[in-house]
Design brief:
Number of domains of chain A: 1
CATH superfamily of the largest domain in chain B: P-loop containing nucleotide triphosphate hydrolases
Pfam family, one (chain B): ABC_tran
Protein name (chain B): ABC-type metal ion transport system, ATPase component
Number of strands of chain B: 14
Number of helices of chain B: 13
Keywords (chain B): Amino-acid transport, ATP-binding, Cell membrane, Membrane, Nucleotide-binding, Translocase, Transport
Number of domains of chain B: 2
CATH class of chain A: Mainly Alpha
Radius of gyration of chain B: 25 Å
CATH architecture of the largest domain in chain B: 3-Layer(aba) Sandwich
Structural class of chain B: alpha/beta
Strand content of chain A: under 5%
Largest interface: A-B, 22 and 31 residues
Distance between the termini of chain B: 45 Å
Oligomer: heterodimer
CATH class of the largest domain in chain B: Alpha Beta
Structural class of chain A: mainly alpha
Radius of gyration of chain A: 21 Å
InterPro entries (chain B): AAA+_ATPase, ABC_transporter-like_ATP-bd, ABC_transporter-like_CS, ACT-like_dom_sf, MetN_ABC, MetN_ABC_transporter-like, NIL_domain, P-loop_NTPase
CATH architecture of chain A: Orthogonal Bundle
Organism (chain B): Lapidilactobacillus dextrinicus DSM 20335
Chain lengths: 230, 356
């Protein structure tokens, strides 16, 4: 078995473990994806909910607040990620104490993800029937209950779907971050595979990314389908 | 039905400002609804009905300073947000499109209304079961809204609206998305709740049929104003505004039948002493054998061309299109006799030269 693998992908076997090996790459990719999803997701969710409730039709309609949030999200969504990666170095240094490795990539990843996810959340939640929101107001509920028990509960199946989409896009961003020094599978595919003409490494690293994507997509779809009763 | 107002709306204006113009959705409305009433508000879409009833629980705030919104004696406009929310729990509301949460089972949809009720989990379960029993859906508690018919969904909506034992139920076109048979059963349920629980119901609709079936009082709205208001019987038998007449005609068909009646040969060729009249009568007047009396006492025969009889709140209300024939003098006497006996007489066409 090992002989066979050695023949088909000698470089992969040689670079399987170790500090810059394949296994480390997988962990780095998962590390960046997890923390970005968690922190970027929470910030994005909060921003997205805020965009919905401060909207002109929202339960706490406030033109000024909405306008500020809206512009903020637009600006940060418009900055190409590859530029963001280098521009935020000072902030990264300040927050996490380093600008390299997976940890150093977290700040730009989160800044790149949160506004994107905020729009996704907004687009999902505005589709909830305003009548359902109104009926909750008529039952005497305030904004907090309406957000947690109506918006997030009623929007959950679609929120899961958009979250999956966002996580997959985060995995894409980690690969880009990898190419400029963050590590992970993207770094391995480009720096160790492509640039050193070790094609087997490029292919295996890419396939591993695909596997991660498929698993997340599959689990997300299953979960969303299970709780969707429309 | 007592004479104590449970809802008092005074000087209500709701003006929506749009970039190009102002829309007066509600225009200086005064409304007083008594405890135990089933109060119907009719009007075409865009008349301001929905906006007006949303003022009752302040889902829509009046846009003028002089407005007063009193529910159960409390001036809602003077309450802070938290106090207002507490009051809203005592005003149930049901909607045209039911507005149930798709993600929750029927039982959880009803339970949702009890989150701030202070009841324990067990007490809430009991209350939900009780409510679903009340609306006849006890066996559906674990289903999701998408598995129910429109009528069943509205029953869930009613159960949810009643969860906090409200004094008032606002029905916003609650039967407009339902077929006639389901409409009748939902209206029956509302009438039942009114009797059993003493619930005051404010029912807005564009269907006069719905009002006719269960309301005891009715207001007609047009362009943000209440143009007519009164007891159902009075409005139904003696409508003043043209719009009210139109609405009533959607269920009696008297006006629309008139055109057909006028085409008939007997009406086209009225002889002297013959008149086409519309007779309207309420309650007691129908007990007398009117047509027989006309013939026996005045020798005037009556040819009934169209008739409609409604039973409103157990009182018969009739409208007849009739050709009376006798000598001109006898016919006049007959007409006078009917007027003296509380029959509304409208002469539509006369065979006498120069009219009557």
């Amino acid at each position: 078995m090992l002989n066979f693998l050695n023949q088909v992908m000698p470089n992969v076997v040689e670079n399987w473990s170790g500090d810059t090996g394949m296994v480390t790459g997988i962990w780095q990719t998962l590390y960046m994806t997890f923390w970005t999803t968690l922190i970027g997701g929470l910030i994005g969710l909060a921003l997205g909910v805020a965009l919905v409730i401060y909207d002109e039709q929202g339960i706490m309609a406030n033109k000024a607040v909405y306008s500020i949030l809206d512009k903020f999200v637009n600006v940060f969504r418009s900055i190409p990620f590859i530029i963001l990666l280098s521009v935020v170095f000072p902030i990264t240094q300040f927050i996490v104490g380093t600008t390299i490795g997976p940890k150093g990539a977290l700040v730009p990843l989160i800044i790149g993800t949160a506004p994107f996810y905020a729009r996704q959340v907004q687009n999902t939640l505005v589709q909830i029937d305003p009548g359902v929101i109104e009926s909750a107001e008529a039952l005497g509920y305030g904004p907090w209950t309406i957000i947690t028990k109506v918006y997030l509960r009623e929007g959950l199946p679609d929120l899961i779907r958009t979250s999956v989409l966002t996580i997959i896009s985060i995995i894409g961003l980690t690969a880009m971050a990898g190419a400029v020094g963050a590590g992970g599978l993207g770094y391995i595919a480009v720096s160790k595979g492509y640039q050193r003409y070790q094609n087997d490494i490029t292919i295996v690293a890419t396939l591993l990314i695909l596997v991660i994507v498929f698993i997340i997509q599959g689990l997300g779809d299953l979960w969303a389908k299970k709780i969707d009763h429309r | 039905m007592s004479d104590q107002p449970i809802i008092e709306l005074k000087n209500i204006d709701v003006i929506f400002k749009e970039p190009e113009r102002e829309v007066r959705a509600v225009d200086d409305v005064q409304l007083s609804i008594n405890k135990g009433d089933i109060f119907g508000i009719v009007g075409y879409s865009g008349a301001g009905k929905s906006t007006l009833v949303r003022v009752i629980n302040l889902l829509q705030r009046p846009t003028n300073q002089a407005a007063v919104v009193k529910v159960n004696g409390a001036d809602l406009l003077k309450l802070n947000a938290k106090e207002l929310r507490t009051k809203r729990r005592k005003i149930g509301m049901i909607f045209q499109h039911f507005n149930l949460m798709n993600a929750l089972t029927i039982a959880d949809n009803v339970d949702f209304a009890l989150k701030k009720s202070g009841l324990s989990k067990v007490e809430r379960q009991q209350r939900v079961a009780e409510l679903l029993e009340l609306v006849g859906l006890a066996d559906k508690s674990h289903d999701y809204p998408s598995q129910l018919s429109g009528g069943q969904k509205q029953r869930v909506g009613i159960a949810r609206a009643l969860a906090n034992r409200p004094d008032i139920l606002i029905s916003d076109e609650a039967t407009s998305a339902l077929d006639p048979k389901t409409t009748a059963s939902i209206l029956g349920l509302l009438a039942d709740l009114n009797r059993k629980l003493g619930l005051t119901i404010v029912l807005i609709t564009h269907e006069m049929d719905a009002v006719k079936q269960i309301c005891n009082r009715v207001a007609v709205m047009d362009a943000g104003k209440v143009i007519e208001e009164g007891d159902l019987l009075q409005v139904f038998s003696q409508p003043r505004a043209e719009l009210t007449k139109d609405f009533i005609d959607t269920t009696t068909h008297i006006q629309s039948s008139l055109a057909v009646v006028e085409q008939q040969a007997i009406v086209q060729n009225l002889q002297p002493g013959e008149v086409l009249v519309q007779l309207g009568y309420v309650g007691a007047a129908t007990d007398q054998p009117l047509i027989t009396t006309l013939y026996k006492q005045f020798n005037v025969s009556a040819n009934i061309l169209f008739g409609n009889l409604e039973i409103l709140q157990d009182t018969p209300v009739g409208q007849l299109l009739v050709v009376l024939s006798g000598t001109p003098k006898e016919t006049q006497q007959a007409l006078r006799f009917m007027q003296e006996n509380d029959v509304q007489v409208t002469v539509l066409k006369s065979g006498d030269k120069g009219g009557n």
